[in-house]
């Protein structure tokens, strides 16, 4: 299996987010709006740049309840985890933020085969506010 962590960046797993369905039928742009909201919550300076978060979707456009971001350094990653892990998103969802590499949850996700290594490798790095 190929590694999904690019050199000189730290992959972060954002887990326990709501499963969303994208589509023109009822809620066009829902995934994009939610992605921007999550980027704001975690302190990203440019929450309009959707290439800074990867949220895999099923073939029907429904998210799996997790997403990924990349940090420039271990210090940025640890700061992001400290300020974002445990954040209540809504009544049924509390954000779980952790280093992807080495986590059991990330291994489960990798084994599921839903990750696109091309997208994972092409993610832009976060520019976090102080």
List the helices and strands and how they pair.
Blueprint: E1 10-15, H1 30-41, E2 66-71, H2 74-84, E3 88-90, E4 93-94, E5 96-99, H3 104-112, H4 117-121
Q: Can you walk through the features of this model?
A:
This protein is 28% helix and 16% strand. Mean pLDDT is 87; it is low at 1-6. The longest helix is centred in the N-terminal third of the chain and has 12 residues, at 30-41. With 130 residues, it is of the alpha+beta class. The strands form two sheets. It has a three-stranded antiparallel sheet with strand order 2-1-5, with helices on one face. It has helices spanning 30-41, 74-84, 104-112, 117-121, and strands spanning 10-15, 66-71, 88-90, 93-94, 96-99. A hairpin with a 2-residue loop joins strand 3 and strand 4 (93-94). It has one domain (10-121): 2-Layer Sandwich (Alpha-Beta Plaits). The protein has four helices and five strands; from the N terminus they run βαβαβββαα.
Key attributes of the depicted protein:
two-stranded antiparallel sheet; Alpha-Beta Plaits; 3-stranded antiparallel beta sheet; 5 strands; single chain
- Low-pLDDT stretches are 1-6
Number of helices: 4
Proportion in β-strands: 15-25%
Mean pLDDT: 87
Give me the Rg, rounded: 14 Å
Fraction of helical residues: 25-40%
Shape: globular
Alpha-carbon distance between the two ends: 36 Å
The level 1 CATH classification is Alpha Beta
Adjacency order of strands in the biggest sheet: 2-1-5
CATH homologous superfamily label: RRM (RNA recognition motif) domain
Largest sheet: 3 strands, antiparallel
Predict the CATH topology: Alpha-Beta Plaits
Number of domains: 1
| Series of secondary-structure elements, N-terminal to C-terminal | EHEHEEEHH
């Amino acid at each position: 299996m190929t590694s999904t962590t690019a050199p000189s960046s730290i992959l972060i797993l954002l887990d326990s987010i709501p499963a969303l369905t994208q589509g023109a039928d009822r809620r066009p742009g829902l995934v994009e709006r939610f992605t921007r909201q999550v980027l704001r919550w975690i302190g990203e300076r440019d929450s309009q740049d959707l290439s800074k978060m990867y949220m895999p979707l099923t073939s029907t456009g429904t998210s799996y309840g997790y997403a990924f971001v990349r940090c420039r350094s271990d210090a940025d990653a640890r700061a992001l985890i400290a300020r974002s892990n445990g954040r209540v998103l809504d009544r049924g969802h509390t954000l779980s933020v952790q280093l992807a590499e080495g986590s059991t949850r990330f291994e489960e996700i990798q084994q599921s085969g839903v990750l696109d290594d091309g997208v994972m490798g092409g993610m832009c790095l976060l520019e976090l506010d102080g």
